[in-house]
Amino acid sequence: MYMVSTNKKIFPNDASVFKIFYLAFQNMVKKWTMPIQNWGSAISHLMIKFEDRAEWI
């Protein structure tokens, strides 16, 4: 994200900033190959903590 914001110092409006960061994030996600560490443990804790809102899990 640092490289995106330093290459262009002036943005015409807020929407252009969000668009640039969104596109940069999409490029980072494509390169993401590592699995999330300890995801099973984390999801278990989230389900206990937010059991009333855990319908999406």
Description:
By secondary structure, the protein is mainly α. Helices cover 61% and strands 0% of the residues. The longest helix is centred in the middle third of the chain and has 18 residues, at 14-31. It starts with a helix and ends in an 8-residue tail after the last helix.
Structure summary:
The chain has 3 helices and no strands.
Number of domain modules? 1
Q: Report the span from N to C terminus.
A: 29 Å
Q: Rg from C-alpha positions?
A: 17 Å
Secondary structure: number of strands: 0
Structural class: mainly alpha
| Count of separate DSSP helical elements | 3
Beta fraction: under 5%
Key terms:
elongated, 3 helices
Please give the structural blueprint:
Blueprint: H1 2-7, H2 14-31, H3 39-49
